[in-house]
Amino acid sequence: MPDISDYDKLNYDYSQYWQERLYENLAEKNLLNKVFENHRGNWFLDVGGSYGRIASTYYNSYKYPVILDYSLNTLIKNKEIIKSRYPKITLIAANAYKMPFKESSFDGGLMVRVLHHIEKPEEYFKEAKRVFKKDARYVQEFANKVHIKAKIKALFRKDFEFFSEEPYEQPIGENLEGSKKEEGGIFLNYHPSNIKSLLEKNDFIIEKKLGCSFLRSQTIKKFLGSEVMIFLEKILQRTLSWTNIPPSIFFQTTLKKKALGKEVEQGSNLRDILACPSCKGDLTFEGEGYAECKKCNLEFSKKDDIWDFRIE
Ligand SMILES: C[S@@+](CC[C@H](N)C(=O)[O-])C[C@H]1O[C@@H](n2cnc3c(N)ncnc32)[C@H](O)[C@@H]1O
Ligand SMILES: [Zn+2]
Asked: Domains of the chain, with CATH numbers?
């Protein structure tokens, strides 16, 4: 089983990371607002959604949004604030590789700033293909290995192997997003062609490639205020998204898998879409906060009112 970046072990408060990153935050949200503003559906899945930073971008487009994250502590800590801003959202602790949902449950979804923690993207995409419906809109963001600064640095080092499609593992020298010098962690930058072919292999057809955070640089930040940067970012997103210049890339996709023969409209109750994360069998529920898999006898319960379906 692939390693998991367990934020609970890192005792990491992810919301703090965003205190000084207004430009990147708005650049991502503006991009996602456009992707989801005219889309409508029932169930929506934010994989690795943490404290709901980008929930505003899909919240009004889908009836039943779900945030799934491996960090139960993050979900518990932020539950009240998420619920007060987004009362319809359901929080679930689970592993993106082994999601506790029935096949073809979701009409839409995304994964933003999480793929760098996923060392086996091919396994994750297989699981994503299972839980999303035919024609679902799915957005995959990833840290771009061959962004312009990285390319220039590699050329100076005369490191020509850097240009291959292999993922680049960032050294954990400083505190990166979700990793700590003392504790380690997984932090991978991916080549766009690699992610494109893995998505397509799993029937996620890329409709748009959208570049983001073109101006991510401490020097630029010193000279330009966030407002000017956001203005320029909008122009760059429109004109240069086809390139591999930016450090972050979003693929807007549609899942073109075969429809399930027995495809039924999912109900509005969470229990209509839940399944055993291990064998994907049906669950039996006892009371409000306990579930058991009929097939493999695994037991699951709610912690602080949040389902804990984490398995490795
Ligand atoms: C850098 S944060 C990004 C949060 C959010 N998507 C955002 O953009 O604000 C990465 C999140 O991915 C979660 N994560 C990492 N590996 C995971 C896995 N295998 N399954 C589920 N969540 C995972 C972490 O717990 C963390 O909350
Ligand atoms: Zn089971």
From this structure: 7-265 (3.40.50.150)
User: Nearest residue CA, atom 27 of ligand 1?
Assistant: 50
CA distances from 303 to 93, 281, 288, 290 (A): 9, 22, 11, 10
Lining residues, ligand 1, CB within 6 Å: 4-5, 7, 14, 48-50, 53-54, 69-71, 74, 95-97, 112-114, 117, 177-178
302/213 Cα distance (integer angstroms):
38
Q: Is the pTM of this model over 0.90?
A: yes
Mean pLDDT of the chain: 93
Tokens of 138: 């799915």
Cβ atoms 91, 79 nearer than 8 A:
yes
48 CA to centre of ligand 1 in angstroms: 4
Report pLDDT digits (tens) over 69-80: 999 999 999 999
Say yes or no to pLDDT of 282 above 60. Answer: yes
Per-residue confidence at 262, pLDDT binned at 50, 70, 90?
low
